[in-house]
Amino acid sequence: xxxxxxxxxxxxxxxxxxxxxxxxxxxxxxxxxxxxxxxxxxxxxxxxxxxxxxxxxxxxxxxxxxxxxxxxxxxxxxxxxxxxxxxxxxxxxxxxxxxxxxxxxxxxxxxxxxxxxxxxxxxxxxxxxxxxxxxxxxxxxxxxxxxxxxxxxxxxxxxxxxxxxxxxxxxxxxxxxxxxxxxxxxxxxxxxxxxxxxxxxxxxxxxxxxxxxxxxxxxxxxxxxxxxxxxxxxxxxxxxxxxxxxxxxxxxxxxxxxxxxxxxxxxxxxxxxxxxxxxxxxxxxxxxxxxxxxxxxxxxxxxxxxx
Length: 307
Fold this sequence. Notes:
Layout: E1 4-10, H1 17-25, E2 32-39, H2 45-49, E3 57-62, H3 67-77, E4 82-85, E5 91-92, H4 96-106, E6 112-121, E7 124-127, E8 138-141, H5 143-146, E9 158-161, H6 163-168, H7 179-188, E10 193-204, H8 227-230, H9 234-253, H10 257-265, H11 274-281, H12 284-299
Parallel strand pairs: 1-2, 1-4, 2-3, 6-10
Antiparallel strand pairs: 4-9, 5-10, 6-7, 6-9, 8-10
């Protein structure tokens, strides 16, 4: 039996999928199965996948129903006790799985394991920034407290005991964008995270990704399902307000004042920094200029986040 089931959902990722698959097959720890779920791609993704011949690869083709459906299908097909997801345009460093196995061995009573990652945009690579101080190479963190800047769980840099999905469920297929955050929040209410500060994966920016398209902006997750939990979980409410801030800003930039107002009115502004409170008041053209400026600063190394 494999120790890890690696699940890659694929939808029109021909420019990236070869490097992503190679990054899995070149892992130092090789006791895994690689489940590739082609979610109805219309480009050359399938042809590229078929170039690989490895007994650990299991390939499945299904109709297009979105990344959540593809990941859930992969979970159903998995045979290993631990599951790792990898998006088809991201990749792992060769020691990702070996380091995750080390985390599991160091903390055998825990269920969720994560590692730091870096971001790649055209012309620049920079590390993700987290909201907890580094106290050890591996440390136990609260999901909400550790994710105020960047989520301490990221789809392509985490490993899960298969049992956690039996308790909290899988990805919500009704959410077109933000389905990962919805699941992480449900998990965060039940489980602490074993976090490794070593950078083991890289996020590759794909401007054509569904999550970047304006048409899905208002089909992001609905935080109302967590309203009851918010009342007794201060860190959860603060985390939600950071996300609502991001949704509000994106809505304003895209000219959707209805959703901007809806998101803004849900925020307890006491949970936002002074800078973010100011940003909420700025007109959309100023916000667009600021994003362009920040992106430039990231590329020249003077800034470590795009926004």
